[in-house]
């Protein structure tokens, strides 16, 4: 039973391409965004802080930049949008 599950997972992931640079950027962006979540456990690297309009605009710009980078990468490896 589990053998088939693992085969299905392998088949599902066979077309996945990963750019470690982009993964690192996404991970950092997630950590930065977590600073604004009340009750969220924060690491020392991303200490909690109150959101400001400027800070939220930075998050939006970071997201839009990452989104463009991911889209460009997908195109370069033959992926779809």
Number of domains in the coordinates? 1
Query: In one word, what is the shape?
Result: flat
The total of helices stands at: 3
Element order, helices and strands? HHH
Radius of gyration: 17 Å
The chain-level structural class is mainly alpha
Would you identify the regions where 5 or more consecutive residues have pLDDT less than 50?
none
Q: N-to-C terminal Cα separation, in Å? A: 34 Å
Instruction: Summarize model confidence as the mean pLDDT.
Output: 78
Query: Strand-residue fraction?
Result: under 5%
Number of strands: 0
Give the secondary structure arrangement, pairings included.
Blueprint: H1 2-13, H2 20-34, H3 53-76
Can you walk through the features of this model?
There is one protein chain. The chain is 63% helix and 0% strand. It is mainly α. Helix 2 packs antiparallel against helix 3. It is flat, with a radius of gyration of 17 Å. The chain starts with a helix and ends in a 5-residue tail after the last helix. The relative contact order is 0.12.
